[in-house]
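Entry for the shared binder. Reason: the reviewer on the internal report wants the predicted structure included alongside the sequence.
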Amino acid sequence: MPETMKNIVDSIESLKKNATDYGKTSLNLIKLKAINKTSDVISSLIPRLIVLLILTIFLLFLSLGVALYLGEILENIIYGFFVVAAFYGIIGLIVHLFMHNRIKRGIFDYIIKLALK
C-alpha cells in the first residue's frame, strides 16, 4: 500500500511540474505573438509615416512658393503669407468640423485590421 501511495504522489508531482511547464510555455507563446503583432503593426506604419513626412515637406515648400508668389502679386510678401495661412486655417477648420470622426475611425479601423491580421 505505501508503494501505491508513493506512485500517486509521484504522479501528482509530475502532473504539477507538467502544468507549470505548460503555463510557462503558454506565457512565452503569448509574449512572442504580442511581439509579432506589434512589429507587424509598426513595420506597416513606418513606411506610411515616411511618405507622410516627405509629402509634408513638399507641401511646406509649395506653400512657401505660393506665399512668396502671392506676396509679389499683392505687392507685400507678408500678405501672401497671410493668404496662405488663411487658406490652411479654413481647410483645418473644415476638416476638424466635418471629417474629424471619419478620419479618426479610419485610422482606428486600419490599426485594428493590422493587429488582427
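Summary line for the report: The chain has a mean pLDDT of 89.
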